[in-house]
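ligand=2-acetamido-2-deoxy-beta-D-glucopyranose
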Amino acid sequence: MAQKETIIVIGAGVIGLSTALHLQQFLSPSQQILLVARDWPNTTSVNYASPWAGAHYRPVPGSSPQAIREEKQARRTYEHFRHEASVPGSGVAWVEGVEHLENPPAEYLDERALGNYTHLDGFRKLEASELPEGVKWGVRYNTFTINSPVYCAYMLRRFVIKGGMVKEYTLANVQEAFYLAENVRTVVNCSGVGFGDSKSFIIRGQTCLVRNPCSVTLTRQNSDGTWSFCIPRPLEGGTIIGGTKQVNNWDPNPSLETRETLLRNASKWFPFSAESGGKFDVIRDIVGRRPAREGGMRIEVEKLGEGRTVVHGYGAAGRGYEISWGVAEDLVKLIRAEGLVLEKASL
Ligand SMILES: Cc1cc2nc3c(=O)[nH]c(=O)nc-3n(C[C@H](O)[C@H](O)[C@H](O)COP(=O)(O)OP(=O)(O)OC[C@H]3O[C@@H](n4cnc5c(N)ncnc54)[C@H](O)[C@@H]3O)c2cc1C
Ligand SMILES: *[C@@H]1O[C@H](CO)[C@@H](O)[C@H](O)[C@H]1NC(C)=O
Ligand SMILES: *[C@@H]1O[C@H](CO)[C@@H](O)[C@H](O)[C@H]1NC(C)=O
Ligand SMILES: *[C@@H]1O[C@H](CO)[C@@H](O)[C@H](O)[C@H]1NC(C)=O
Ligand SMILES: *[C@@H]1O[C@H](CO)[C@@H](O)[C@H](O)[C@H]1NC(C)=O
C-alpha cells in the first residue's frame, strides 16, 4: 500500500487551528494532517498572539478592499460562533455588545456604515438620550465573547479526536516543512507574524485581566485616538480590560502606568457592579503582539516547484477571532480549487 500523504499545517493559533479543523472534512482516505507549531494552547509566549486576545466580535466599518474582504469573513464567523456558543465548554458565549465613540471617524459617519452591523442580532443605533456624556455615536447588538485559551484548547482537542496529528517544532524556513513527514506536497502557513515577510509587523497590545465580573462587552473609542474596552471571558474566565495598540513596539514587559490608566478609565466608563466600588482585583497584566500585515492577511497559494505548494494564511492583526472561521473557509476553498484535497466534504 502506498504511503499516506501528509498535509502540514503550521501554527496552532486561532487561524491554524480553525483551518486544520475545517480541512479535516475534505481529506481523502489516503491523506492526513500534521499540525506543526512552536507554541500550543498549553503554553504562553509573547510571540503567540491567540491566548492573549480578549476576545470579542465587533464589526469594523470600512470600504477598502481589506475591509470588504474581512467584512465577508467576519459575517461567516458570526454564524459559526452562533453554533459554537451552543456547545458546552467551547469557551464561546453570547453577550450584549455596546460601542461608544467620542469622535466618530469618517467611515462611521458614512450612512452605509450601519450596513456593516445589520447582520448582528438585536442591532440598533443608540438614541442621543442613551449616550453617556462626551459620546456622539453609539450602537448596541448581541455578539460573542471568547475565552481565547479555552477556545483554542477545545479546537485542538477536536482536531486530535478526529485523527489529526501534532508535532511541537520550530521551523527555520519554508523548505524544512516539507521534510517533517513522508510524502508532503501541501503546507499551510498560519504562522501569525510569520518569519521573513517584509510586509508583516506587530501591534503591541497591553490589557489587564481582572476578577471583577461584567455583563456586557463595551468598546469606547476616545477622542485622543485611544481605545478602552471590557471583555467578559466566558466560563468564569474573569474580564479583560484594555487596551493599547502600539505599532512596532517590541516591549515585552507590561507598564504599570498603562495598567493604572486602563483601570481608571474602566471604572469611569464600564458597568462594573457597585460592590466593586471602582476597585479592581487584578489577576495579571497581559502583553501580546498582534500579527499584522500591510494590506491585510496573506491568503494565497504559492507554487514552489517539484509539486510543492504552500498556502499562506497569516497577518490577521487585531481581528484573528472575528474573522477566523471565514479565513479557514477561504483557505480550504483555495486548497480544494488546487485539487489538493477532495472537492466535496466527506462526512
Ligand atoms: C491584547 C490583544 C487583544 C486582542 N483582542 C482580540 C479580539 O477581541 N478579537 C479578535 O478577533 N482578535 C483579537 N486579538 C488578535 C488575535 O489575538 C490575533 O489576530 C490572532 O490570535 C492571530 O492568530 P494566528 O493564528 O494568526 O497567530 P498566533 O496566535 O500568533 O499563532 C501563530 C502560530 O504559529 C506558530 N509559529 C510561528 N512561527 C513558527 C515557526 N518558525 N515554527 C513553528 N511554528 C511557528 C506559533 O508557535 C503559533 O502556534 C487580540 C490580540 C491581542 C494581543
Ligand atoms: C461598511 O461601511 C462602509 C463605510 O464605512 C461602506 O462603504 C460599506 O459598504 C459597508 N459595508 C456593508 C456590507 O454595508
Ligand atoms: C503542549 O501541547 C503540545 C501539543 O499537544 C505537546 O506536544 C507538548 O508536549 C505540550 N507541552 C506541555 C508543556 O504540556
Ligand atoms: C510562512 O510565511 C512566512 C512569512 O511571514 C515566510 O517567511 C515563511 O517562509 C513561510 N513558511 C512556509 C513554510 O512557507
Ligand atoms: C484614558 O483616559 C485618559 C483621559 O482621562 C486618556 O488620556 C487616555 O488616553 C485614555 N485611554 C486609555 C486607553 O486608557
